[in-house]
Design the sequence.
């Protein structure tokens, strides 16, 4: 299954609330620059979530600039994490890792142990997907840092998701699915539907790798149903492509072709020539008698 959706999902945005007095605000207390950085961060992450990576990066660059102007460590760190995800999705790996490492360094300087652990898990996840570190090393890192993440539910879910990915890479499929379902429980309970869709997508990949293709297709059906509800075109295209891959594994070429054509139609409607070409390469390999 495609790595890009992995990095789209991990462009998680969480708000940090600052306490303030009930006194009338002075001009300097309006936090206009910081608010602008937060708004751009949300917008850029939304664009990334729809596969518009070039536009997302431009927005996140401006978000990062405003975050630096406000000198707010939390906003700077979260901008770096989302920016790194987009850079990775664009194939700019060296820049992506530099951005993740910068986020870790900024979190260390700020003394925010929880956010530092989040940054380290982001970096570990990058090392896992890129093959820079073995899965066992990533799993050990996640288990060390996971205990520090206690207050933000999205980041708690994130740590379980990465743990599941490491276990999947190690071939421990039962434990991998258990870990991802911990993430899913949080996302379904708090109605983070796009994240829940990705959890089901990941569960499908685990089931497919374990040879449980029918159960994998059921998980993808759930992901597709959620993405249709929230009109997540990128998620729909990725899931339909995955359906095609599972059918190919079962040697059901006609069903695979139908699924690939669904994915292709969505990518074409999005104007994504790269993914359309990739789908075409899959279709060209199908031989139906």
Sequence:
């Amino acid at each position: 299954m495609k790595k890009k959706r992995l990095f789209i999902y991990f462009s998680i945005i969480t708000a940090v609330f600052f306490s303030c007095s009930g006194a009338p605000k002075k001009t300097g207390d309006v936090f206009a620059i910081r608010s602008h950085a937060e708004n751009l961060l949300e917008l850029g992450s939304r664009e990334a979530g729809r596969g518009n990576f070039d536009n997302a990066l431009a927005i996140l660059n401006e978000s990062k600039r405003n975050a630096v102007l406000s000198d707010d460590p939390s906003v700077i760190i979260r901008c770096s994490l989302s920016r790194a995800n987009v850079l990775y999705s664009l194939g700019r790996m060296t820049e992506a890792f530099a951005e993740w490492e910068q986020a870790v360094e900024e979190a260390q300087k700020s003394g925010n142990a929880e956010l530092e652990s989040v940054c380290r898990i982001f970096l570990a996840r990058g090392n896992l997907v890129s093959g820079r570190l073995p899965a066992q090393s990533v799993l050990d890192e996640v288990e060390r840092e996971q205990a520090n993440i206690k207050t933000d539910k999205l980041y708690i879910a994130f740590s379980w998701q990465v743990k599941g990915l490491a276990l999947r890479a190690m071939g421990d499929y039962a434990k991998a699915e258990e870990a991802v379902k911990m993430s899913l429980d949080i996302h379904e309970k708090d109605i983070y539907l796009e994240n829940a869709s990705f959890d089901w997508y990941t569960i499908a990949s685990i089931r497919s790798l374990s040879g449980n293709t029918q159960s994998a297709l059921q998980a993808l059906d759930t992901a597709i149903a959620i993405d249709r509800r929230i009109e997540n075109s990128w998620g729909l295209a990725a899931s339909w492509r995955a359906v095609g891959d599972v059918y190919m594994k079962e040697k059901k070429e006609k069903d695979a072709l139908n699924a690939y054509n669904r994915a292709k139609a969505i990518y074409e409607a999005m104007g994504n020539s790269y993914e359309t070409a990739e789908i075409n390469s899959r279709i060209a390999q199908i031989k139906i008698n």
Notes: Confidence is low (pLDDT under 50) at residues 11-30. The first helix runs from residue 4 to 9.
